[in-house]
Specification:
The protein is mainly beta. It has one domain (6-114): Protein Yojf, Chain: A (Distorted Sandwich), CATH 2.70.180. It has one helix spanning 16-27; strands at 6-10, 31-38, 42-58, 65-72, 75-82, 84-92, 97-104, 109-114. It has an eight-stranded antiparallel sheet. The longest helix has 12 residues, at 16-27.
C-alpha cells in the first residue's frame, strides 16, 4: 500500500487575490470539513461536512479579510477571518488539494479539510428569474 505524499505550500500575500479566484473555481462544490484551532480555546469543529463555495480576499486597503463561503446559492454560509497572517495549501503529488489553512493574526488557524476529489456537494442553484 502506498502512502499519499502531501506537500504544504505557503502562498505569498501578494498572490492571495489571484490565488483566491483560481482556488475557488477549482475547488467549488467539493465537500469540506472546517475546523478552528486555537491554543487558548482548543479545537472547534465549525462544520462536519459542507460544500466549499469560495475563498475571497480583501487586501489591506479594502479591509484585510479572508471570507470563506460554504453551501450553494442562495443559501451560502460565510466565515470571516479578519487580518489573516498566512495562507497555506496542502496538495498531493498529483496537485489534488487536501487542505487549506488560514493563520489568523493572533496565531489561531482555520483549517479546511477537503474530501476525495469527485465527492461533490449539492449543485449550485441557478437563479430563477
Amino acid at each position: 500500500m502506498s502512502e499519499v505524499v502531501r506537500i504544504s505550500t505557503r502562498i505569498p500575500r501578494e498572490e492571495w487575490e489571484r490565488f483566491a479566484v483560481q482556488f475557488s473555481e477549482a475547488q467549488r462544490g467539493r465537500m469540506v470539513q472546517v475546523e478552528f484551532v486555537d491554543q487558548e480555546v482548543g479545537d472547534e469543529p465549525l462544520s462536519g461536512g459542507i460544500a466549499f463555495y469560495s475563498l475571497d480576499y480583501d487586501p489591506v486597503n479594502k479591509g484585510d479579510n479572508i471570507i470563506l463561503a460554504f453551501g450553494s446559492e442562495p443559501d451560502l454560509h460565510f466565515h470571516l477571518i479578519d487580518k489573516p497572517a498566512d495562507l497555506w495549501v496542502a496538495e498531493d503529488e498529483q496537485g489534488v488539494v487536501w487542505a487549506l489553512e488560514v493563520v489568523h493574526e493572533g496565531g489561531a488557524r482555520t483549517i479546511l479539510r477537503f474530501g476525495s476529489p469527485g465527492v461533490m456537494g449539492p449543485p449550485a442553484k441557478a437563479d430563477q428569474a
